[in-house]
Amino acid sequence: MTWHTAACIAVVAARAVPAYGACDTTDSCLQTIEHAQADTQTIDARFTQTKTVSLLNEPVISTGRFLFQRPDRMRLEIDSPRPATIIINGRDIAIPGISASEQQQLSTAPMAAMFVELGAMFSGSPAALRRHFEVAAQSTAGAIEVTLTPTLPEWQKLFRTIRLRFSEPDLVVSSMQLADALGDHLEIVMRDVHRNAALPDNAFQVPSPPAK
Predict the structure, then answer these.
(1) Which overall architecture, per CATH, does domain 5-195 show?
(2) Cα angle: 75, vertex 17, 33; to 5 degrees
(3) Which member of 52, 85, 139, 191 has the greatest number of CB atoms within 10 A?
(4) pLDDT in tens, 122-138
């Protein structure tokens, strides 16, 4: 499992809300998204991830469930092809089933830091992304598209661009496309999305390792 899978922590789900008007600048588009997501408290969604690798003839497809709780708790459950769980609580990242030292390495990796930063899209603060990304946003047919280009050298070694599509009328992130530094591509498409639904109390708790 790679940290490409964690990309899907940048996905937002939403309930039906009033349609928003078109925006004509990056600033106005970010403000429109911020307004639409201001009351997001929780997210529960299904996803399909398709990874195209230059060395493989066929894309790698995985499916799963994504949970988010404001301000910075996330849970990624991968169902197929290989079951796995990723839990993020602020800057702490845990993958049940791996050692504490491996989890520490993941928490301090540049990829982890970059995707944790994308949590600003969930908490209604997309302008905060400008701290570490060049941000361009535009209104397109039925959506607002936001393109993020990393500005930190260690992030530039991992990704060239991240493109998010916020679909009308409720301006949810319906898809994400990532182009990495090797020329491979990742696309994540959301479905069955629910915003502000009740989540299990223990959804973001890391289970204790089994007794030896």
Answers:
(1) Clam (2.50)
(2) 65
(3) 139
(4) 666 777 788 889 999 99
